[in-house]
Amino acid sequence: MPDGHHSALTPDQAVDRLEAMHADAVQAQRDALARFAAGGPPPDPEERRRFRYPELRLVCEPNGPLPVTRRAWGKVQTPGVYATTITRPGFFRPYLLEQLRPLAEEFGAVLHVRPSTQEIPYPYVLDRGDELADSAASATDLARHFPTPLLSAVGDEVADGLWAFEEGHARPLALFDAVRVDYSLNRLRHYTGTHWRGVQPWILLTNYQRYVDQFVRWGLDELGNPGSPYDRLVAPGDTVANRGDDLAEAAARIAAAPWFRFQMPAYHLARNDGQGGVTIVNIGVGPSNAKTVTDHLAVLRPHCWLMVGHCGGLRGSQAIGDYVLAHGYLRRDKILDDLVPPEVPVPALAEVQVALQEAAAQVTGEHGDALKQRLRTGTVVSYDDRNWELRWSQERRRINLSRAIAVDMESGTLAAQGYRLRVPYGTLLCVSDKPLHGEIKLPGTASAFYQRAVGEHLTISLAALDLLRGGVEALHSRKLRSFDEPPFR
Q1: Which residues are CB-neighbours of 330 under 8 A, at least 6 positions away?
Q2: Of the N and C termini of the chain, which has fewer Cβ atoms inside 10 Å?
Q3: Distance (Å, rounded) from C-alpha 133 to C-alpha 366?
Q4: pTM for the full predicted model
Q5: Are residues 175 and 242 in the same domain?
Q6: What domain count does the chain have?
Q7: In-domain check, residue 6
């Protein structure tokens, strides 16, 4: 008879077991850290064996053929044993149950939970991060006696298709294991200035602070609207405004949030209806930040991220303030060339494209040819060099061959990251200048453009997310899945 850790479990029982085992491991290490920081003895090998992540194993060995489903996730493509380590199972409970229930009910998968061999690095069990600030124990002392973060233990081999199946070993159950997830959760706080628990499943990424300012105004209006499902706005420094707060005081509190201390400040507007709120992150200008933040956001398995920012229009028929809906990307950003080579196509996702176009029609009130005059679909070229214009003679032919209609520095990176990390993605840009036609942003015209364009652009993006909420299952499409995809989304 198998013991309690190896007995078959229902999905709810499996997540209960994961929560209990993770909580026990975290508390055991916290207790040992507190004792050692107070001058007590370090953990002995037996105690240290408790500092491990739980492992979730799935066994799928059907008597007949595997069931056929059009769903892109929550399915097994090859019979066998799958496993991954799990962190923060309480937070990820809805996601875990969403993945496990169809695997158990449709595929007959048998679930087990047991201790893994993967230790929890001690910084990941601290709530605030400064609990050991007054300890006499040095970082060297702590590293000698407690598990530490090791770069050799963190990687994206599964997401990047670099793992190799070995007979007698489990296949990966998920794209990211526990230590990779914990690594990113901690980095999110560092970069965005907000706790990772505040990040919402619908994400806007922008390269201008003015979009964030408009988002905050909209969020505060939603908090003051009795019929709105939004009930909490979180700003950098974990500054919070709640429904029912005095709006003037809430606005002052959010305005005073220390966003300028953080590399990519984020704001999160949460909902109370279970459909997921909206996060906006100011990633700044350039592909490096775009890759960095999405490497970390991806472990939260968001439903979608959209690039919402400015671009240079490359066609004479475009006007300042027109929109560009990217359906292809000429990736000259170079940052992902080793992971997703430029010759690998990064497809547009039909569900996202349709939602953005429908939202543009709703918000602008324009349809047919009138909408086409303002919303052009085409290829966006993304550079790693803001002064790409100085290489125009070298770049002209490539841009011409690609039929690109707009240029920026982030969209190609964000689309490639969405493709690579299986997060639905899209791009809606606003033409702020036309570098090939002598129409550039001068101080006076730029201010007028920003006042007119940013509010409408953000409103279109938010309306698109509202449309996408109604079809989440289709949004997580098979376009993003490999032939040896892990069962979990």
Answers
A1: 379, 380, 381, 382, 398, 399, 402, 404, 412
A2: N
A3: 58
A4: 0.94
A5: no
A6: 2
A7: no
